[in-house]
Specification:
Layout (H helix, E strand, L loop, with lengths): L9 E5 L4 E3 L10 E10 L4 E8 L2 E4 L8 E2 L10 E3 L8 E10 L5 E13 L7 E2 L14 E4 L2 E2 L5 E7 L5 E6 L2 E4 L9 E7 L2
Parallel strand pairs: 1-9
Antiparallel strand pairs: 2-7, 3-4, 3-8, 4-5, 6-7, 8-9, 10-12, 11-15, 13-14, 13-16
Length: 196
């Protein structure tokens, strides 16, 4: 029986996005998977990120905690899913799998994938215009949501225009909500969206 791991030699991810590093094999009778490790070599450092063995899944590098996972029930699929990519995640990643044969000998295979993290062209936020004019009965609850597209992360600020032409800052966040509307809440509200 012949076993081989397959995956790309190079892969590009987008900063703050997610990426899957493929690593897969076709299961072979009489060969039982024992361990899986994902390790990385960065410019300055190296180490084991993830290890799966008889005792479960272990994430060994703190900077990858809560950011990496490997599918649990897909036999032969050892791909590493990485969330919230940082520029410092660029490097060479190695997937290594060991199997035990029926004669108790161990077989090990590995593949390496080079990862680049690119910043997408920065775009300033564009707010999707809301409907003008909203009539709501007193005592009701309502909310206004600010929707903007552009490079993440985007921050939001809600303001209210006063009769004197001043602007009053209300809250930060995409949503502005009222539990019980009062007649005094009537007025003009607007949202600002900003990013880096």
């Amino acid at each position: 029986a012949f076993l081989d791991l397959s995956g790309p030699s190079e892969i590009k991810g987008v900063w703050k996005g997610s990426i899957t590093l493929p690593c897969a094999y076709v299961p072979v009778e009489d060969l039982v998977q024992q361990t899986l490790t994902w390790s990385v070599v960065h410019d300055q450092s190296s180490g084991t990120i993830f290890r799966r063995d008889g005792s479960g899944d272990h994430i060994l590098l703190s900077e990858y905690r809560d950011r990496v996972s490997v599918p649990k029930d897909a036999t032969g699929n050892m791909s590493l899913l990485m969330l919230n990519l940082e520029i410092s995640d660029r490097g060479t990643y190695t997937c290594q799998v060991t199997w035990r044969a029926s004669n108790n000998s161990l077989i090990a295979k590995e593949i390496t994938t080079k990862v680049e993290v690119v910043k997408v062209a920065a775009t300033k936020p564009i707010i999707k215009a809301g409907e003008l004019g909203l009539t709501v009965p007193a005592g009701a609850s309502t909310s206004l949501t600010c929707e903007a597209s552009g490079s993440p992360p985007i921050s939001y600020h809600w303001f209210r225009s006063t009769l004197e032409g001043k602007t009053l800052f209300l809250s930060s966040g995409a949503k502005l909500a009222w539990d019980r509307l009062q007649p005094s809440d009537s007025g003009t509200y607007f949202c600002e969206a900003a990013n880096r």
